[in-house]
């Protein structure tokens, strides 16, 4: 059973017995998600097709790192698309962010170790859906844009999808735009991934992400993910997403200390990647 030559061997056996063998339309086994999509497309009115559509609609967990985002959380969670489960990772808030998120029905994970990467990894570890998305929880990004970013991954057309930010006036400080342009150029040069933005809204398959072995637990997490994915030959795509002024002050670009830590972490990732590819 379940061998590529099973049908051929059976046909030869029947013909050896002198039986006439007729060919019926070729069907396919349902072993994985691509088979499920194909079967659902061939028989869209069946219970199987209905079940496949239901599974695909709930195939995304959304990791939302949070550090004192109480004011933005309600707007973000109320705009979460149907079938997208919010996993709010509280990274040491003291403003009641975790309680607000839990009260609105989100899954809340506590990660006391400070660091953007630590929060993202905790959310990834808690996720169970086949596809995991990440986005900031400061109302700068709209969850309504998640289906468009996740679609290439859900369809099997891309391994990593990035939301390329189209910033509104005042949404991104000048030093942030300059740093982002520089990092995108470094990614293109070092691993060949044709990206223009190191955007915080992104999606990939959970098992594949875990297999990347991302080690950074601070501000280098987003860069390390793309560098490792590019190195491993992932299909990386970008889709434009609106980017609005955030609610509250950024913990990275909004403070001198945060900016310096991010620069240090990003430089370390570029240096490690360069050293590892010599």
Automatic annotation (TrEMBL):
SUPFAM superfamilies according to UniProt: Nucleotide-diphospho-sugar transferases (SSF53448)
Alphabetized Gene3D superfamilies for the sequence: Spore Coat Polysaccharide Biosynthesis Protein SpsA, Chain A
Keyword Calcium in record: no
Pfam family, one: Glycos_transf_2
Domain of life, source organism: Bacteria
Ranges in a coiled coil: none
Signal peptide: none
Statement: the UniProt record of this protein carries the keyword Lyase: no
Domain Glycosyltransferase 2-like: 62-209
GO MF annotation: an example: transferase activity
Keywords from the named record: Transferase
Family affiliation: Belongs to the glycosyltransferase 2 family.
Name of the featured protein: Glycosyltransferase
Organism placement in taxonomy: Bacteria, Bacillati, Actinomycetota, Actinomycetes, Glycomycetales
């Amino acid at each position: 059973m379940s061998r590529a030559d099973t049908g051929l061997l059976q046909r030869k056996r029947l013909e050896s017995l002198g039986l006439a063998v007729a060919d019926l339309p070729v069907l396919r086994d349902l072993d994985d998600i691509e088979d499920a999509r194909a079967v659902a497309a061939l028989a869209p009115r069946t219970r199987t097709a209905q079940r496949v559509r239901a599974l695909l609609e709930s195939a995304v967990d959304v990791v939302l790192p949070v550090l004192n985002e109480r004011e933005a959380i309600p707007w973000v969670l109320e705009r979460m698309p149907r079938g997208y489960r919010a996993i709010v990772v509280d990274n040491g808030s003291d403003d009641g962010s975790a309680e607000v998120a839990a009260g609105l029905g989100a899954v809340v994970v506590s990660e006391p170790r400070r660091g953007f990467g630590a929060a993202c990894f905790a959310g990834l570890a808690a996720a169970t859906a086949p596809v995991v998305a990440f986005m900031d929880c400061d109302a700068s990004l709209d969850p309504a844009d998640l289906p468009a970013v996740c679609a290439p991954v859900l369809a099997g057309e891309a391994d990593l999808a990035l939301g390329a930010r189209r910033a509104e006036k005042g949404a991104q400080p000048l030093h942030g735009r300059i740093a982002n342009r520089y990092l995108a150029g470094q990614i293109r040069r070092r691993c060949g991934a044709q990206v223009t933005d190191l955007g915080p809204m992104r999606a990939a398959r959970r098992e594949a992400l875990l297999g990347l072995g991302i080690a950074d637990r601070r501000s280098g997490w987003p860069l390390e993910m793309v560098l490792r994915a590019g190195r491993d030959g992932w299909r990386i795509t970008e889709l434009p997403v609106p980017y609005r002024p955030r609610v509250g002050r950024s913990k990275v670009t909004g403070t001198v200390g945060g900016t310096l830590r991010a620069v240090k972490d990003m430089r370390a990732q570029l240096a490690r990647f360069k050293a590892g590819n010599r």
